[in-house]
Design a protein that fits this description.
By secondary structure, the protein is of the alpha/beta class. Helices cover 33% and strands 21% of the residues.
């Protein structure tokens, strides 16, 4: 039996909102993974991409990485890693930080070679296939814009290697930094489930990364643990972790292990139509949520969306004043407050009590689309695209950051053109 830890999207070096504590949070999350691996005496650790957050690694991030990898090395637990879109070498630097760590033997970086033959056995310095004494481990990296064709070629090569008896009496484990059946286009390394069936039919475990929300398909043998730490406030801090896997012949056991993260609260607060002290009203809701969901005195990340309809000149909110009030009552590390109240003149529009918040949002968004210059027959399509994108972002099916913002723009253009 082989037992291992599968994690992904560690994002060491990430520093959301330029807050020192958040930088440390990323390292603490990975430290918990390493501590568990050592305690359970696993055969190896798999990291399915995005070990680092940035292609350029600063000294403190490198120090953070080496400290934890050294613990695994001392415990004789090898770390197999494949590249994600965040930690691949850039066009100007052909030698990546992962290659540096691999040359030091802190990790074993498994990656395909982009030539006629993608899959090569590890030769001590490079390769995509590593023969461990208990399993074959294959690193497929981030497939990018040619995801579908890339996986087909990988599958064909792997079938030939199996036919040639290159894989004997040991399970085959693949690492792939890609979203499966997620709202991720090919330009962002996304794949449909049917496109990986050929691969999953001939391997024993597919270790995924890239999407920060956990999902899996036990029958298809693919598993995505999500990121180990919250990169966004809207991430669920109570469902972050990694897989502890036991694999023996065709018997597969997986257990999802939680990592303890910094708590975050993301609240949507609807204000009532009656006259109230809006600051006291909002504060009481936040305090109640904090007491129910957070440890006492723990500093949290806080996001608030304030919704409602009010007459112009009423229910006005000074965001900075509200932040001060909240900070005096609740230990917050960072606050993101969005005032989404719609202010209207009474003679201009009257909203009946039975109109839902969703309907009001729809009216307002469509008005903004029209004012942006779109034609009447385009408004519904654009609104549907915006709604879909919002839902997918909130569910963690896409991650909007500097690395793939352009890809999302292209994706929206393709959808608007019927693609």
């Amino acid at each position: 039996m082989v037992k291992f830890v599968h994690c992904a999207d560690i994002h060491l070096g990430a520093n959301p909102f330029e807050i020192e504590e958040r930088f440390e949070d990323m390292g603490k999350a990975f430290s918990q993974v390493c501590k568990f691996a050592i305690k359970e005496k696993v055969d190896f650790v798999l990291i399915a991409g995005d070990f680092f957050h940035n292609k350029t690694v600063n000294p403190r991030t490198l120090e953070q990485a080496l400290e934890e990898l050294e613990k695994l090395k001392k415990a004789n637990i090898p770390v197999f890693l494949t590249e994600g879109n965040h930690d691949m070498s850039s066009y100007t630097h052909v030698y990546s930080w992962l290659q540096f760590l691999s040359s030091r033997k802190d990790i074993i970086l498994l990656k395909t070679v982009k030539n006629d033959k993608l899959l090569n056995f590890w030769n001590g310095k490079e390769g995509a296939i590593y023969e461990h004494n208990k399993a074959y481990i294959i690193g497929l990296g981030y497939p990018g814009s040619t995801a579908s064709k890339y996986i087909q070629k990988i599958t064909d090569e792997l079938k030939q290697l199996i036919k040639d008896n290159k894989f004997i009496n040991k399970p085959i484990i693949c690492m792939l930094h890609s979203g499966i059946n997620r709202f991720v286009t090919e330009s962002m390394g996304g794949l449909k489930e049917e496109e990986i069936e050929g691969l999953t039919n001939i391997i024993n475990y597919l270790a995924l990364g890239h999407i920060h929300v956990r999902y899996e398909n036990v029958d298809k043998k693919y598993f995505n643990p999500g990121s180990v730490e919250c990169v966004r406030i809207t991430d669920n801090p109570f469902n972050k972790g990694f897989y502890f896997v036991k694999l023996e012949e065709n018997k597969l056991e997986t257990e999802f292990k939680l990592v303890k993260n910094r708590n975050s609260l993301s609240l949507s607060i609807d204000i009532p139509n009656e006259e109230i002290n809006i600051y006291d009203y909002i504060l009481e809701i936040i305090k109640k949520e904090y007491e129910e969901k957070c440890e006492k005195n723990q500093k949290i990340m806080l996001q608030i969306k304030i919704n409602g309809i009010a007459k112009s000149g009423t229910m006005e909110i000074n965001i900075q004043e509200l932040k001060k009030i909240i900070k005096n009552e609740i230990p917050v590390l960072y606050q993101d407050i969005m005032n989404l109240i719609i202010y209207v003149d009474e003679q201009e529009i009257k909203i009946s009590e039975d109109v839902s918040r969703e309907e009001i949002d729809k009216i307002v968004v469509k008005e903004k689309i029209e004012k942006a210059g779109y034609k009447k027959d385009e408004i519904d399509d654009i609104y549907n695209i915006i709604t879909l994108l919002k839902e997918c972002a909130e569910n963690g099916n896409i991650t909007i950051d500097d690395n793939n913002g352009k890809d999302i723009e292209n994706m929206l253009l393709n959808i608007s053109r019927g693609g």
